[in-house]
Specification:
single chain; 248 residues; alpha/beta; Rossmann fold; 2 domains; 7-stranded mixed sheet; 10 helices; 7 strands; 22% strand; elongated
């Protein structure tokens, strides 16, 4: 890695650090090769970073990258299962990216006090974003911002989260304003009328409509067909409700 060139990230990770805010110290949980840790320090978003990973292999690669780029005095590598290795009130913020939503939930649940003490943390779930949003709101967290990126044929949602039980969390008007689409597609993305969310919903509308048409013509047992059509039409209704909000 050339130490004279700027750290290059994917569009997805640029969007993640764009939600990270700024402060003194940030924990990069599941850091892989520490590119995100180096990028936030290089850009002056945070003075220091903790590059944390469960696996020795990526952490060794991270240490090598950090030494080559001259960040050894500002980035500490730490072997850690999720946030287990993060000390109480050690960092202002955290990034948890590139893993499934239910794994993220388990990481937060296991060390929920540490996450409540953070000024902000950023999540980029690879799956089950709805479950992540429902968990956060139920636990008193506020999703203060969201972004979405299309990269390499996939759509990636991400969210900035703060613990504000008195103003957000369970008191947030999620269902009252948009219903289930707020949890499924992201209230902040809907408020922004985010163009990538609209593209995703239009893509899902096309996919679902095509599958429904195929099943309607398929020769299959009636009860099974009707159950599947009901399920798909329910999803299509939610997608079209989301599109209606975005277009108005």
């Amino acid at each position: 890695m050339n130490s004279n060139t700027e750290i290059k990230l994917s569009a997805r990770m640029y969007a993640v650090i764009g939600l990270a805010g700024n402060g003194l110290c940030i924990a990069d949980i599941g850091c892989d090769h520490a590119l995100v840790s180096m990028a936030v320090v290089e850009r002056g978003l945070y003075d220091r970073a903790l590059a944390m990973d469960l696996r020795e292999g990526p952490l060794s690669a991270a240490k090598k990258n950090i030494l080559e780029r001259g960040f050894a005095d500002r980035i500490e590598c730490r072997l850690s299962d999720g946030a287990d290795g993060l000390k109480e009130k050690e960092c202002d913020a955290a990034i948890v990216a590139g893993m499934g939503g239910h794994l993220m939930i388990s990481i937060i649940e296991k060390n929920i006090g540490k996450f409540k003490d953070l000024d902000r943390f950023v999540l980029q779930p690879q799956s089950d974003a709805e479950a992540v949003r429902r968990f956060l709101i139920a636990e008193g967290f506020c999703i203060v911002d969201e972004d979405m990126v299309f990269e390499d044929g996939k759509y990636y949602p991400m969210m900035a989260v703060e613990y504000r039980p008195e103003a957000c969390g369970a008191h947030e008007t999620y269902p009252e304003v948009y219903g289930d689409v707020a949890y499924i597609f992201g209230k902040r993305l809907i408020e922004k009328k985010h163009p990538v969310l609209q593209a995703y919903l239009e893509y899902r509308e096309g996919i679902l409509s095509g599958v429904i048409a195929e099943i309607e013509q398929a020769d299959m047992e009636a009860e099974r067909k009707n159950a599947r059509l009901y399920e798909l039409n329910q999803e299509l209704e939610l997608v079209r409700r989301g599109l209606c909000i975005l277009r108005n």
